[in-house]
C-alpha cells in the first residue's frame, strides 16, 4: 500500500514537471508578417506546423495592413509594423524570432534597420523580393494596367506613385537603373545603393540579428527573378547576378557581407514550390525553417 502511494506520487510529480516544462517552453516566441493582398490567416498552416514541432511556442501573426491595405507605401507600413513588433518584443526579454513572407520580408528588413533595441534572434525571410521585382504576376494585372514589364517603370518611377503604392517601392527595372536610383524612395535606400545619412545606424541595428535565413526557389511563379529571394538580380542584359557579386554585398552597405563572414547567413533553396505555397508546405518547414526556431 505504502509502495503504491509512493510510486503514484512520483508519477504525478513527473507529470507535473512535464506540464510545467510545457507551459514555459524553451522556444522563443515567433512573430509572422504576411505578404501583399493577404493577412494573418495565410499563416494558419505554418502556425500549426510550428506548434506541432515545438509545443508551447507563442506564435503571433500580425494583424495589420491586411489585403488591399497591404499596398500602402512601404515606409508607412514599416512604421506601424515596428510599433506592434516592439510591443511583442518588450514582453519577450529572452528574444524572439521573426519570419516574414514575400513583401513582408522587406517590411521586416525596414523594421530591423530602424529599431535600435530590437531583440530578434533569427530572421527568416520566406520568398521575398529582396533585390527587387521585375515581373508582373497575374494577381497584379488589374493594378498595373500595362502589358509587359518593360513599361511598368512609366507608372512606378513617379514620386506620387512611390508615396502610395508598395509594389512600386520594390519594383526594379534593370534597364532603368538611373531612373530607379533617382525615383525609387525605398529599396535603393534599404539596400544602401543610394547613400543616405542613416546607413551606418541602419546597418548596426540590422546586425543585431543572430542569423539571417533566406528561403526561395525556382518554382516560384511570382518573385521575378526568383533569385531575388536570395539577393540575386538581373543585370541590364537580364542575366542573373548572384548575391555575392552584387554591389550591396561587395560594399557591405547594410551588413549582408558581415553576416556571411560571421557564418550567420543561411540560404535554403527548394524547387517545385509555388509562391502561394511557401508557408503551407510541410517539407519547406522541415528543411528550411524548423531548426531556426529554437
Ligand atoms: C493549408 O494547407 C491545406 C492543405 O495542406 C491547404 O488546402 C490550404 O489551402 C492551406 N491553407 C492556407 C491558408 O494556405
Ligand atoms: C512542397 O515542397 C516540395 C519541395 O520542397 C515539393 O516537391 C512539393 O511538391 C511541395 N508540396 C506541395 C503540396 O506543394
From TrEMBL:
Signal sequence coordinates: 1-26
Stretches assigned to coiled coil: none
Reactions the enzyme catalyzes: S-hexadecanoyl-N-acetylcysteamine + H2O = N-acetylcysteamine + hexadecanoate + H(+)
InterPro entries, alphabetized: AB_hydrolase_fold
Chief location: other
Any one of the GO CC terms: lysosome
Alphabetical keyword list: Glycoprotein, Hydrolase, Lysosome, Signal
Gene Ontology terms, MF aspect: palmitoyl hydrolase activity; thiolester hydrolase activity
Short name of any one Pfam family annotated for the protein: Palm_thioest
Main function: Catalyzes the cleavage of thioester bonds from S-palmitoyl-CoA or S-palmitoyl-N-acetylcysteamine (unbranched structures) but does not have activity against palmitoylcysteine or palmitoylated proteins, branched structures or bulky head groups. Conversely, hydrolyzes both long and short chain fatty acyl-CoA substrate.
Family: Belongs to the palmitoyl-protein thioesterase family.
Protein name from the UniProt record: palmitoyl-CoA hydrolase
